[in-house]
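Appendix B. Extra example for self-study. Work through it before the problem class; the solution is given directly after the inputs so you can check yourself.
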Amino acid sequence: MGAPGSRSRLETTGFADAVHGRASVRRYGPDPVPRDDVEAMVGIAVRAANAGNAQTWRFVAVEDEGLRSAMRGAVEQALDDMAAWPEAEGLEKELKAYRAYATFFAQAPVVMAVLGGVYHSFADDLHERRGLPREERDRRRQRPDLQSLGGAIQLLCTAAHAMGYGACWMTAPVLAAPAIERLLGIDPRWRLVAVVPIGRPLVPPRPSQRLPVSDVLEFR
Ligand SMILES: Cc1cc2nc3c(=O)[nH]c(=O)nc-3n(C[C@H](O)[C@H](O)[C@H](O)COP(=O)(O)O)c2cc1C
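Solution. Structure tokens for the complete assembly:
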């Protein structure tokens, strides 16, 4: 075993295996995901670091096939509407590919709707009160709400993989957020942030390439 923090030490843990083995899975078997397993995955997700420990996340596990189809229908409708915009002219091929990218979630036995709540960052609020120009406020904006959600979603997907399931973190369906929130009866204080379909992978997950660490890490 190597020294604390060394790569070899990390690789001996189940954690490293779960992280390295995870990949987005987009085709699922029909077996239901037991509720105990869904609860265990969410139990891991909520261990994420999060701004102010405000835990402004909620998870709705959509098992009902009719609801899942209706969610897909909402995304298709939103895409149909977009396709009719004059600005979408000539983008038929892209829209077709995007439709597949945004709708496959419905065939998973459980679809997690990940919701984000309002989080007031002290600094963001003060910038607004100060009346800083929009561009300046955007440059300084920390988005702790979304960053916290990101941590939880990554853990959710990694936990699903560690438990033998496949999952895919998806934001494309959010283009139909208002309709999906209505379908699921979401309290208006919460917003759909992502959708994560989960099921047994039809084919083993294939981790995709990453840039070498030397390309993405600098020391100063
Ligand atoms: C914020 C975010 C949004 C994503 N949205 C979608 C999506 O809408 N549809 C989809 O098929 N994949 C989506 N993905 C999955 C990415 O395509 C995938 O993570 C990336 O290609 C790397 O592959 P890997 O997850 O297998 O490592 C999303 C991932 C992230 C982090």
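Self-check: The pocket of flavin mononucleotide is lined by residues 23-24, 26, 101-102, 168-172, 208 (CB under 6 Å). If your reasoning did not lead you there, revisit section 3.
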